[in-house]
Design goal:
- The complex is a heterodimer of chains A (35) and B (558).
- Chain A has 35 residues and is an all-alpha fold.
- Chain A has one helix and no strands.
- Helix content of chain B is 79%, strand content 0%.
- Chain B is globular, with a radius of gyration of 24 Å.
- Classes of the chains: A mainly alpha (35), B mainly alpha (558).
- At the A-B interface, helix 1 of A face helix 5, helix 10 and helix 13 of B.
Chain lengths: 35, 558
């Protein structure tokens, strides 16, 4: 199996940060909506 | 527990042990036994990383936290995804290319034998005592809730775990972890379904969560910057990031998981799985606790969740006070139930305020009952939060699902303990036995020694677990000391990988300086423990770099 290139991983790291930001924002809205 | 539940628990134990050993290949070689010949797929390693971190204390304690305080605890994990990115870019490629068995072996190549021996020794001491606590905490809860003897419960966890770890090595541990994660997530999801179905017909899930939100249970993010508070956005993001870097980057029980991956990129992918999944998984577990809170708004909860203390009060000299409190509690519960139904029906601010007042009444009465337990038993720190979820499981879940959830709690303990025993054995054999005592023995010799080391650590952890309850405060101190060195330990790896001019003596003194500073901050200030990890890393790196100018040495590359 071919190894993924480092650019694929760099995109993956950026995606991790985006997903985390989205999850934290969603949690914040959850608190506002149900609070 | 009924016959079907017992059958499920026994089937789970047999399945985990038998399949773990069956999947083990080439464990007659030391690299196969400790590192699976670096051949495991990323998804199995990723699930193993998560199963190792998710102990029964997490499963039972976090649902209890959700019940008592709501979602705020999730902030503790906010730094984890960022830590995973840092580790993917730094330690993962370093460890893989160095072909090491232990993280500490790398430190000898870069610095010297004393730095390796000290860090490995610190790991052994902290991890073996922590392993005892990881077994004992859920064993105490299960033994009380299920009416089993503590010794039986400890042995039920300790013996099978030691057995499959000893025979199958890291492969048995990893494949058992994969199944255990399945059992844990399956059990939690099934419980959530039962909880939702257990709400009254007129109360929707949204309305129940609105009611929980009226008493702060749905607030997950707190942007206050206060270093004395344990769980805020900033302590979770920054302190949690340093803690996760220390735990996943410098603790052999985690490093060994991703050393088994086929390649650097597969190891990276396994860590990124946690980066994506960990926070949602913790939200699910905390939300389960919040739903247990919602469930008990409409179904009478016990006033005390620990049945042992409930009996002590009901049958002891404080029985009249206890009975009076129970009467008050029953009436307060009915008032809260009515207020919760009104709040769920109208969702008006006025009804929510009335519900919050009724909930505060219930809490006040429960606090008085808890105070009565503290006075009667002399246990001043007593809290029954950790008993909420097991009591709910045992008294409210249908037959079959009780067995599945007990199996899930056992799975959570066993997956953590197995990885810890496996890593304790690896550090003992590779960093001490093979390094200092018997340098040129055969594979068979080291393999036998590894079996003996695993059995020895398993026995030791089981004994510590049996006596952990009577050790009391000592165990708390041990855990505090453990948390003192994570940041410092990660700092030494930063020096090893990120600098070229820092030599062995400077690094060694920097490590001691970092641990001493963290100990001072821990004892002399009220800075929250999450921030201590930041202090440890920063002090070790700063001290190491400064000392390299005072103690110039010829640096080695790893």
């Amino acid at each position: 199996m071919r190894e993924r290139s480092s650019s694929t991983f760099n995109a993956n790291y950026a995606l991790v940060i985006l997903v985390e930001a989205a999850v934290i924002t969603a949690l914040w809205f959850l608190g506002r909506y149900f609070g | 527990m009924r016959a079907l539940d017992w059958a499920i628990v026994v089937a789970y134990l047999v399945w985990v042990i038998a399949d773990g050993i069956r999947r083990t290949k080439r464990a007659n070689e030391i690299e196969g036994y400790f590192l699976a010949n670096r051949s495991l797929p990323w998804w199995a390693v990723g699930l193993s990383v998560m199963a190792t971190q998710l102990s029964a204390i997490t499963l039972v304690g976090t649902t209890g936290q959700g019940y008592a305080d709501g979602l705020l605890f999730v902030q503790f994990y906010f730094g984890l995804p960022l830590a995973m990115i840092v580790l993917c870019l730094t330690v993962v490629p370093f460890f893989h290319r160095a072909k090491v068995y232990t993280a500490y072996e790398f430190l000898e190549r870069r610095f010297d034998p004393k730095t390796r021996s000290l860090t490995s020794f610190l790991f052994l001491v902290q991890r073996c005592l922590a392993c005892g606590v990881v077994i004992s905490a859920p064993a105490v809860i299960l033994s009380i809730v299920l009416g089993w003897s503590l010794t039986f419960t400890v042995l039920l966890i300790g013996v099978p775990t030691t057995l499959y770890t000893m025979v199958g090595g890291v492969q048995a541990v990893t494949w058992a972890d994969v199944k255990q994660m399945g059992v844990i997530v399956g059990g939690v999801l099934a419980t959530v379904v039962v909880l939702i179905m257990g709400l009254p017909d007129e109360v929707s899930v949204g309305a129940a969560l609105q009611t929980a939100g009226a008493v702060g249970r749905m607030q997950a993010v707190d942007f206050t910057f206060d270093v004395t508070r344990d769980f805020t956005f900033w302590s979770g993001l920054i302190g949690g990031m340093f803690l996760a870097m220390g735990y996943f980057g410098a603790d052999q029980s985690q490093v060994q998981r991703y050393l088994t991956a086929k390649s650097v990129n597969q190891a990276r992918s396994s860590l990124l799985m946690s980066a994506y999944v960990k926070i949602p998984l913790q939200v699910l577990i905390l939300l389960t606790g919040v739903l247990v809170f919602c469930f008990y708004l409409y179904t009478p909860p016990p006033m005390l969740f620990n049945p042992k203390h409930e009996r002590v009060l009901a049958e002891g000299p404080a029985a009249p006070q206890y009975q009076a409190l129970e009467g008050e509690f029953g009436a307060a519960f009915e008032r809260r139930r009515a207020a919760a139904l009104s709040a769920a029906a109208t969702e008006s601010e006025q009804d929510k305020a009335a519900f919050a007042a009724a909930d505060a009444d219930v809490k006040r009465i429960r606090d008085r009952a808890l105070m009565l337990v503290r006075e009667t038993t002399g246990d001043v720190d007593y809290s029954d939060v950790n008993y909420v979820f097991p009591t709910f499981v045992l008294t409210q879940l249908p037959m079959g699902l009780v067995g599945l959830m007990i199996a899930a709690i056992l799975a959570a303990v066993m997956s953590t303990v197995a990885a810890e025993l496996n890593s304790l054995s690896t550090a003992t054999i590779i960093d001490f036995y093979k390094r200092h005592f018997r340098k040129t023995e055969s594979e068979t010799h080291y393999l036998r020694a590894s079996w003996v080391a695993t059995a020895m650590w398993g026995t030791f952890a089981t004994i510590v677990a049996t006596y952990a309850t009577s050790l009391g405060a000592l165990i708390v101190v041990v855990n505090q000391i453990g948390s003192f060195f994570y940041g410092s330990l990660f700092g030494i790896f930063v020096l090893a990988m990120g600098t070229t001019r820092v030599g062995a003596n400077a690094a060694f003194i920097a490590l001691l300086t970092g641990m001493a500073t963290v100990a001072m901050v821990g004892f002399a200030t009220n800075v929250s423990w999450l921030w201590q990890n930041v202090v440890g890393t920063v002090v070790v790196v700063a001290a190491g770099v400064l000392l390299s100018y005072v103690l110039p040495e010829k640096a080695k590359s790893a």
